[in-house]
C-alpha cells in the first residue's frame, strides 16, 4: 500500500510541476525539461516514520520525507495519501528537484479526483537560468485549466546584501490562467515594476499557450516622430494563415505623410520558400518634398522565392520595385547608400563537373536624375560551364558558353553569344619551381540595334567624346559583328621557405606572361558588363583581368611580383604582395584612370598584418608608376581586446575620367566623375561590468559628387555621412540600449537630421522600444 501511495505521490508532484510550468512558460523556460517521466521507474522512499490507519484508509509519512523516482526528488515534512477520497497532500517545506535543475517550493499542496484537480499554497520556483516565479496559490481545474493567484515573475538575481529588496524588474499579476482547451494564457491586472516602482499597467493581456508555436494577434506598438513624416504610430498584427504560411500587417499612421500599410508574407513549401515585404502610402507630399504636388500613392515591394526542382536544379526570383527614388529612405525601408533596386529571375544547376545558370534582370535606379527608360532589361543572360577530369598529362579542359540579350525602352539593344574553351596544366621542376600553362580560344558574336550615347555613356571615349571633342570615328547605330580571341600564357612561382624556431619565412617571386592578338576590341561594341574597372592586386597573374566579355584584355604583357610572408608559431602572420604589369603596347579600351590603360601599369599590392588576436590590418594600394603617389587605397584595421575594440576603414577611389566632366554629344547631359574618399570607424568600450559604449561614424573626405542630368546624387551637407553613439547596459536579466544617430544625407524629400532611439530588453519577456524623437532639417 505504501508503494502505491509513493508512486501516486510522485505523479502528483509531477502534475504540480506542470501546473506551474505552462502558465509561466511564456516568460522563458518555465515548462521544465520537457521530458516525460517514467511512471514505471522504481520508487526510492525514506522517512523518519510511516503510519497507516486501516479505518481511515490513510497513509502518513513524517519527518524528512524523501521520495525519488526517475531523477525527480520530492522533499517534505509530511506526506499523506487518503485512499477513499483519492487525495494526496504534502506539507511543510515542500520542494521538488527536477533532473534538469529546476526546483519547486511550496508550503502545502493537495491533489484529488485522479489528479484532475489540484491546489498549492505559496508556490515558488527556481529555474535553470536562475529566473524565479512565485504565487500565493495555484490551482488546476478539471484537468485543463491552470490558475495562479497573485503571481510574480523575475529573471533577476536577488540582492546579496538584502534578498528582501525588490529585483531590478518583476512582472506581477492578480491572476494568471492557462486554458489548455483554447491554448491561451491570460493575465489580469498585470503590472511591470522596475526596482520596485510600477511603470506599466494593463487590466488584461493574453498570449498564446506555450504549446502553441504560432498564433494570430497584435504585436508591440511603435511610436515615433520626425519632421519628414511627423508624429507616427505603427500597430502591427500577426495573422496565421495556415501551418505553412503567415502574414504580418503593420499599418502606420503619420501626421505629416499620410497613412502607410506595410505587410510581410512568408510561406514554406516542401521544396522551397516564399518571402515578401511590401508597403503602400497615400500622401500629399511628393517625392521631391513639394507639399503642393497633391495626394499620390507611393510604395515598394521586396519579395524573393526559391524552389528545388530536383537534386541538380533550383529556380527562384527576387522582385524589388519602388514608386520613387526617395520613398525607401524617407520611410526607413532602405540603406541610405543603396543606388538601385534589382529584380531577378533565375535557374541554377550544379553538376559534378560544371554548372548552369540562366538569369533575367530588371534594374530601377535610385539615383536622382536617372530614369527607368535607359536601364537595361536582361532577358536573359545564360552561362554553361563544363570542366573535364584530369587527362593523362594532368591537364584539364574547360568549356564555357554565354548568351546575353539586353533590351531598353530607350537606347541600345544588345544581343551576344560567346563560346570559349581553355586548357590548363600545372607542374613542378626538380628545383622547386612551380609552373602553370594555359591556352584558350573564345569567339563572340554581337547584334546591336539603336546604339545610343544616352543609355551607354561609359563606352570608350574615342567614340563618345569628352567635353565635346570630335569622335575618333562615326559608326552606324545598327550592326552585326563578331570576333575570335586566342590567348596563351605561362606562370612561374618559386617559393623559398626557411623554418626557424619561432618563425617560418616565405619569399616567392612570381612572373607570368600572356600572349594574345592586339586587335579584337571594337569601338562600337557597347560595354555592358565591364564597367568601372580598377586595376587591383587581385588582378595580377590573371589571363583576363576584366570581369565581363565585352572588353577584351588584348595584346602581350608580362606580370611580375613578389610575395613574402613571416608566419609565427603562435599563429601570427605578416604577409606582403607587390606587383606590376608591362604591356607590349597600350590597350585604348582600358578605362581611363583604371591604372592599367598605359603600357606600364601602376604598382599594386597588399599588406596583411595579423600578429595576434588583438590586431588585424589589411592595406590594399595602387601607386603611380612614376612618382609612387597614392592613386587608390583600401585600409581596414581591427585592434584591441574585447574591453576596448577599435576598428577603422579607409577607401580612396580615383576619378573615372581624367577631365572629370563628360558631355554627351547631341544632348545637354553632363556627368561629373569625381573621386570618392571615405573614412569610417567603430569603437566599443566596456566601461564597467554592466555599461559599455559603442560609437561609429562614416566621413566623406571629398566634396566631389556625380551629376546626372544636372541633378546631384545623394550627398551629405557636412563631412559626416552617418554617425552613431550608443550606450548599452546589460546585466543578468535586462539590457537597456540608448542611441544617438546623425545623418547628413540629403536627397529629394530626405533631409539631414538627428534621431534618438531606445530599447529595453527584459530577459525571457521580450523587447520594448521606440523612437524617442527625431529632428531633421528643412528642404533647402
Give a structural overview:
The protein has 780 residues and is mostly beta strands. Among the domains are: 2-158, lipopolysaccharide transport protein A fold; 214-343, no CATH class. It is built from 2 helices and 48 strands. A hairpin with a 4-residue loop joins strand 6 (103-112) and strand 7. The N and C termini lie far apart (90 Å).
Report mean pLDDT, rounded to a whole number.
Answer: 81
Assembly context of the chains:
single chain
Q: Low-confidence spans: pLDDT under 50, at least 5 residues?
A: 1-35, 286-292, 460-476, 657-673, 706-712, 767-780
Can you identify the CATH superfamily of one domain?
Lipopolysaccharide (LPS) transport protein A like domain
Strand fraction equals: over 45%
User: Structural class of the helix and strand makeup?
Assistant: mainly beta
Q: What is the percent of helical residues?
A: under 10%
In angstroms, what separates the terminal alpha carbons? 90 Å
Write the layout of secondary structure elements.
Layout: H1 2-24, E1 43-46, E2 49-53, E3 58-69, E4 72-82, E5 87-97, E6 103-112, E7 117-126, E8 132-141, E9 145-154, E10 169-179, E11 184-194, E12 197-208, E13 217-218, E14 222-226, E15 230-234, E16 237-242, E17 245-254, E18 259-269, E19 272-283, E20 296-308, E21 313-322, H2 327-330, E22 340-351, E23 354-365, E24 377-387, E25 396-407, E26 413-428, E27 434-449, E28 479-493, E29 496-499, E30 503-515, E31 557-568, E32 573-583, E33 603-612, E34 615-623, E35 630-639, E36 644-653, E37 661-663, E38 670-672, E39 676-686, E40 691-700, E41 707-708, E42 711-712, E43 715-716, E44 720-730, E45 734-743, E46 745-746, E47 753-762, E48 766-776
Antiparallel strand pairs: 1-3, 2-3, 3-4, 4-5, 5-6, 6-7, 7-8, 8-9, 9-10, 10-11, 11-12, 13-16, 14-15, 15-17, 16-17, 17-18, 18-19, 19-20, 20-21, 21-22, 22-23, 23-24, 24-25, 25-26, 26-27, 27-28, 28-30, 29-30, 30-31, 31-32, 32-33, 33-34, 34-35, 35-36, 36-39, 37-38, 39-40, 40-44, 41-42, 43-46, ...
